[in-house]
Design a protein that fits this description.
heterodimer, A: 235 residues, mainly alpha, 7 helices, 76% helix, globular, B: 77 residues, rod-shaped
């Protein structure tokens, strides 16, 4: 099964996938932006500031999902010692950091007109800052530790410790009395968001996920070339 | 109507700034990733060129990745 993620095996698929994503990306982006900025209605309480949600919420979800993937792949790597998983986690980390920072910044831009403040040391916001610190530590481990094996080990440990923070972020709005609103979208079907707002949200999520896939594939391809270049004499 | 769209009933600054920051960050990361990928492809192709003809042939025969990188690099120049 693990042979399926063998770099040599999937390399030619990467190029095809990159071309496919490039061909549909801009059409989907225009559709998503039309829904998010023009067709979706303003909120009855928050007015047009609710449109910030269409970039804030997908960014936060991607930030959380990326770190969860990194941590789970790190656990798998500890158990099965698959070197290739390190390439994947290393490629995901900068994207996850960017989206976590975007969630914090756009959240702040939402907070000013909604709560009357740019920043509050609220449980949800603080735990998101902690998440960004874990991302930074993970990336720094790869940048500062020269021995690749040691860097991988340290970054895997950071990711596994950071996993504890994920449920804290998710349930912070339920466990503590926070300024941040509770989640409006639930997987059990009790979502309180109107379909006219859910559709643009899902479209923006799809566009940003495609963007992530594109960057991830390009980064993964770069990592494979870097390794092949290092071992060119051995080939 | 256009004025309303731009001002977003007084929330324009916050809404447009959020979207602008998001797309600027995404575009920057895309540009940096693309540049790095092309640089590595170029370096790899250069390293292949430095090998002797027989060594290069052997590398290209043995490594699918090497031949694909070279093809991708040749396509981009």
């Amino acid at each position: 099964m693990f042979d399926l993620i063998n770099p040599s095996r999937i390399f030619h698929w990467i190029e095809k996938l990159i071309n496919f994503i490039n061909s549909i990306f801009f059409i989907l982006l225009i559709i998503a932006l039309t829904f998010a900025l023009i067709l979706s209605p303003p909120d009855y309480l928050q007015g047009d500031s609710v449109r910030i949600m269409y970039v804030h919420v997908p960014s936060a979800w991607i930030g959380l999902a990326s770190f969860t993937s990194i941590a789970l792949l790190s656990i798998l790597n500890f158990i099965f010692k698959i070197k290739n998983l390190n390439l994947i986690t290393k490629s995901i980390a900068p994207l996850g950091l960017m989206f976590t920072c975007l969630a914090i910044v756009t959240g702040s831009l939402w907070g000013q007109p909604t709560w009357g403040t740019w920043w509050a040391w609220d449980a949800r916001i603080t735990s998101m800052v902690v998440l960004s610190i874990f991302y930074i530590l993970f990336i720094l481990a790869h940048k500062l530790i020269e021995q690749e094996d040691k860097a991988n080990k340290v970054s895997n440990i950071i990711a596994i410790i950071g996993l504890v923070n994920i449920p804290v972020i998710k349930y912070s709005v339920d466990w503590w009395n926070t300024l941040h609103q509770p989640s409006s979208i639930k997987l059990d079907g009790t979502s309180s968001i109107h379909p006219s707002m859910l559709l643009p949200l899902m479209l923006m999520l799809l566009v940003l996920l495609l963007y992530c896939a594109l960057i991830l594939l390009m980064k993964y391809k770069t990592e494979i070339i870097r390794i092949k270049k290092k071992n060119i004499k051995r080939i | 109507m256009i004025q309303n769209f731009i001002s977003m009933n007084g929330y324009g600054l916050f809404v447009w700034l959020s979207f602008a920051i998001t797309f600027l960050a995404c575009a920057t990361i895309y540009y940096k990733t693309y540049k790095t990928l092309k640089k590595y492809e170029k370096d790899f192709a250069k390293e292949l060129e430095q090998l002797s003809a027989s060594e290069r042939k052997l590398v290209l025969e043995k490594s699918k990745v090497a031949s694909q990188v070279l093809a991708s690099y040749n396509k981009s120049i």
